[in-house]
Amino acid sequence: MIRYFQQMEEEVKKHPPLTIAVAVAQDEEVLRSVKAAQDRGVARAVLVGDEERVRPAMEAVGLPSSLRVVHETGDAEACHKAVALVRGGEAQVLFKGLVSTPPYLRAVLDKESGLRTGRLLSTLHAFEIPRDGRLLFVTDTGLNIAPDVDEKEQILWNAIDALKLFGIDHPFIGILAAQEMVTPKQPATVDAAELVRRFEANPAFRGTIEGPVSLDVAVSANAAKHKGIVSRIAGKTEVFLFPTIEAGNVWSKSMMHYANINAGGLIVGATHPVILMSRADDAVVKMNSIVMACYMALKGGKA
Question: Domains in the chain and their CATH numbers?
Answer without folding.
Answer: 5-116+270-299 (3.40.50.10950), 123-257 (3.40.718.10)
